[in-house]
């Protein structure tokens, strides 16, 4: 469309809000459009700290990758990786070990176009456009196979993406399929929107979001999120609110940790 920046891949609908770009807007990024900004602001009206929540989620992702790197993980598969921003997984992982390998997958063409642009020349990282709801295809993808050795421990990241998979699409089966491809000693990192402690806020969030975005969001109760970890051992501190997961400093945890309605956990395959 005339007037659009040249980084917009052909065929991308910029007139309707999109989950990757709304998140980019909350994070203060520049790869979003009026429709994304309008929805981002509408959600701020029902959940005023959503921007801080997005930053808290991103900070958790960084802490989790550093934790995995310290545990010896040297290859990562990040599905629903989003539009690149500060503290991308390959930056954090390759800071720990420049030879660490990172494969990104996202359904969104804008996210993938940007990922591929920033990864140009990085032989140990790649990004593919793929749908989490077809995990077999991701596992069999050539670019993933070139980077990831499934006979070795892997860090599988599903952060702020499972809530875009409806119950009817059985996200638990999807995680099980991915889990079955992991070597012993692998880790799963999950972050997912919840309706556990603030059901009214979660419901208002869902309502406003789902009116505008075709990828519907589904806030889940704690028990449904715990089920993603079947076949894994959760590491301390278990499934907790995003700021409570191994904070860099106790001051980073708000007085009411449930203010960010996002439960997270990191788990290791059962030995
Ligand atoms: C909120 S962002 C999270 C980005 C990153 N994981 C993080 O936590 O900072 C959610 C991402 O999931 C992607 N996504 C949504 N549904 C997906 C699907 N079925 N398969 C792959 N990616 C999906 C969106 O395009 C978006 O980039």
Could you please describe the fold and organization of this structure?
With 271 residues, the protein is α/β, with parallel strands linked by helices. Helices cover 38% and strands 15% of the residues. Helix 1 packs across helix 2, helix 2 runs antiparallel to helix 9 and helix 3 runs parallel beside helix 4. The mean pLDDT is 95. The site of S-adenosylmethionine has 22 residues, from helix 1 and helix 3.
Quick tags:
10 helices; binds S-adenosylmethionine; 8-stranded mixed beta sheet; globular; 15% strand; alpha/beta; 271 residues
The number of E-state strands comes to 8
- Quote the distance from N terminus to C terminus: 53 Å
Percent helix, as a range, is 25-40%
Number of helices: 10
Poorly predicted runs: none
Summarize the topology.
Layout: H1 19-26, H2 34-46, H3 50-70, E1 75-79, H4 89-96, E2 101-106, H5 109-119, E3 125-129, H6 135-140, H7 142-147, E4 155-159, H8 171-180, E5 187-193, H9 199-212, H10 222-226, E6 232-234, E7 240-241, E8 262-269
Parallel strand pairs: 1-2, 1-4, 2-3, 4-5
Antiparallel strand pairs: 5-8, 6-8, 7-8
This protein binds S-adenosylmethionine.
